[in-house]
Amino acid sequence: MTGDLSGGDLSRLRRLNALAVIGVLRGEPALTLTEVARRTGLSRASTEDVVRELLERGWMIEAEPTAGTVGRPARRYRFHADAGRVLGVDIGGHKILALVADLDGAVTHTGRVAVTPQMGRRQRLAAVDRAVGAVLADAGLEAAEVWASGVATTGLVDATGRVMLSEALPEWTGVNVASHVGRLVSGPVLVENDGKLAALAESWRGVARYAKDVVFLLAGLRTGAGLIIDGKLHRGFGNAAGEIGALPAARWVQALEHLRSWPGDDPPADPDAAVEDLFLAARDGDRKAGLAVRRYVKDLAVGASALVLTLDPELVVIGGGFSRSGDLILEPLRRELDRWCVRTPEIRVSGFGDEGVALGAVRLALDHVDAVLHGPGELVDPKHFLTVERPRTRIEP
Amino acid sequence: MTGDLSGGDLSRLRRLNALAVIGVLRGEPALTLTEVARRTGLSRASTEDVVRELLERGWMIEAEPTAGTVGRPARRYRFHADAGRVLGVDIGGHKILALVADLDGAVTHTGRVAVTPQMGRRQRLAAVDRAVGAVLADAGLEAAEVWASGVATTGLVDATGRVMLSEALPEWTGVNVASHVGRLVSGPVLVENDGKLAALAESWRGVARYAKDVVFLLAGLRTGAGLIIDGKLHRGFGNAAGEIGALPAARWVQALEHLRSWPGDDPPADPDAAVEDLFLAARDGDRKAGLAVRRYVKDLAVGASALVLTLDPELVVIGGGFSRSGDLILEPLRRELDRWCVRTPEIRVSGFGDEGVALGAVRLALDHVDAVLHGPGELVDPKHFLTVERPRTRIEP
C-alpha cells in the first residue's frame, strides 16, 4: 500500500482543489492568497497554482485594492459572479415575475406583468414572453447569454417540464413550460412546482437557511406546500410531495372558502384585492373579518398538522401572498398546531413577500450551473455554459 | 500542487482501504485475493497488505477450501461475522421478543415471552429480563459479550432512551428503557420507537430494500408509521416523525374501533386473538367480519393518504401483526389510496410477520457497530467493542 497517485488521481485532485477554492470564495467579498490557503487547507504553492488557473479561466477576478491601506496591499481575489447570468420566472395566477441574477444569486433586474387567474393558456404564455423580454432588455442581455433558467408554475410538473395537472389555472394542464420558455432563452430550462421552489428559496437564503427539516406553507389564494428534508428539497418519487391539499380531511379547500365569502355573497371582481381588504379589516378589529381569518387558520392548520406530524420538522415557514399578513396568521396557527401536534415546531414568516417563488426559480437555475461545475470530467470554463445543448423537449404547436 | 501524501494522509488511506475490503466482504460467502482486489480497485500489493492486517485484527478469517477443487485452490477469505454478537429486543403490548444476531445480522437465537397490554411497568420489565436472559443463555453468551443492543418500544423515545410518552401501555411513560436493558448486557443500548425500527428492518432486508422513500404502516392492535427518506430512517427533529395517528382527522383511532367491536359489544378477553378470529372470519366470507375489515381499511387509508401525499414515496409497506392478513388489507387499501392520492405508490406486505420490529432493533445495534468502525481515528479491533463505556443514562430506582 503506497502513496502513489496516478495521472487520473492528480487531475481529479487538481479539480477538487479548484472547486474548493471556488467554494471558499463564493459569498465572500474578497480574500488574499493567504486567506484562501488557510480556509482550503491547501499549501501556498497549490493555492497559487489553482488561483492562476481560475483567473485564466475567468472564474475568479482580482478585487479592487482596499482604499487607505498603507504600503503595497496584498492582492485580493473574488469569485467572478458576473461571469454569467441566470433567469428565474414565477408563472402565477396573479402575476408573472421574472428575475435576472448573477452567479452568486444576487438579483440584478426584475420584470413583472400582471395577469388574472381567469386568463387562458395563450394569454398567460404571452404575459410570460413579455415579462422575460422586459427583464432581458432591462439587463441588456441577449437570449444566448442566459446560462440557465428556472421556472415555477402551479400544479404538478413532470421531468420534461410539462404541467401534468393544474386545477388552479384554466387550460394549464398539459402546457410544456420548459419548451415555451426555451424559445425565449438559450441554456437549459428547469421547471418546478411553485410551493417546492418557494421552500427552496427559504432554505437557500430565507428564514429557513439554518434548518435541516422544514415544512413550508405557501399561503395565498392557492394553498401549497414544499418540504426541505436533510437540507435538500424533497420532490417525491413522482415529483408530487407536499400535495396534502388533495386530501379533503386536510381541509385546505374549505380554508380558502372562509376568505372568499367576505364581505358579501357575491364573488368579488378581484379576489386578491378582496382578501387584502379582509386582512386589513381584521387588523383594524373588524369582528367579521377577524372571524373569517380565524376560521381560515383553523382549517389551514389541519393540513399543516398532517405535514408536521408526518415529518416532525425543525421549522414551519409561512410564505406566499398572505405572508404579508403573517402577524395575523402566526399566533392562531401556533395555537392550532399545539392542539394537534405531538411537538409544535418553531414557526416563522417568510421575508420574501410574493418574490419567494421566483427566487426559488433562480436557485433552481443556479443548481444546474453548480451541477455542471461539480459534475464529472474536467473543470469547465464559463464559456461552456454558452454552448450547452438544450435538453430535448417536445415543442408545442 | 503535488501528489505528496503526509503520514496522516497515508494512515487515513490505509484505514479507508481496510474499510473498503470489509465492505466488499460483508454479505459475500468468500472471496479470493484477486476478487477482493478487483472489487475494491486496490492493487494486488495493497490488497495483500490490508488482508494481512484484517486477519491479524480478527475482522477476517480464511474460509474452508471449496470441496472438489482440482489442484491447490486459491485461499478464500470472508468477513468474520462471528467476531461479535448484538442483541435486538422488541418490547410490545403482547410479547417481548429478543434476538441475538451476528455481525452480518443473521439471527442465531430467539427468546419470546408473552405479555398483555394491561400489564404494568414492573411486570413488563420483568418479562424483558426473562426474554433477554433466555436468549443469552440459549446463545451461550455472557452479558459482557454483547457488543451493542437495540431496543424497540411503543411511544415517543428521547435521546437518553427514555419513553417520553406512551398512550398504549399503562405506566410506560417515563420508563428509561436504556438504563433498564443496560443492567442486563454490556455495550451501548440504543432505544427507538417500534414503527421506526420496523421501517428500518424493511429498508435493510425486507420488501423495501430497493426503495429510497418508503412509508411503513405498522398495522396491528396499535397503528403506527415509520418513514424511510433517501434510504435512511427519518426520525424528525424531536424524534416524533410519523405520528400522524395523533391527528383525529387521520382517523387511526376510529379505524381500530371497527375491529374491536367484533363479534359483540363486550370487550373480548384477548383482543389479539379476537382480531385474528375476525380476519379469519372475513377470509371465510363472514359478511359482518368483512364489513369490519373494510371499515378499518377505509379509516386507516385516511392517515396513510396523509403520509403518502406529504412524501410521495416510492413504496408503501404494510407491516405489524395484521400483515399476516395482508391479503385482506392490500387491495382495499390500494382502492382507498387511489381515491385520495395524487399518485398511488406500489404497496407491499411485509414478510416479517411480528418479527420486523425486533429485526429493526438488531439493525439499530449494528448501526452503532458500523458507526464505531467507520468513525474517526484508527481502525478499531473487535475487542474494542468489549470495552466500550456505556453511555451515561439515569439509573432508575
Automatic annotation (TrEMBL), chains A, B:
SUPFAM superfamilies (alphabetical): Actin-like ATPase domain, Winged helix' DNA-binding domain
Species in which this protein is naturally found: Streptosporangium subroseum
UniProt record similarity statement: Belongs to the ROK (NagC/XylR) family.
Ranges of residues in domain HTH iclR-type: 17-59
Name of the protein this chain belongs to: Sugar kinase of the NBD/HSP70 family, may contain an N-terminal HTH domain
GO molecular function terms listed in the Swiss-Prot or TrEMBL record: DNA binding; kinase activity
InterPro entries assigned: ATPase_NBD, ROK, Tscrpt_reg_IclR_N, WH-like_DNA-bd_sf, WH_DNA-bd_sf
Keywords for this protein: Kinase, Transferase
GO biological process: regulation of DNA-templated transcription
Pfam families in the record: HTH_IclR (PF09339), ROK (PF00480)
Keyword Electron transport: no
Coiled coil: none
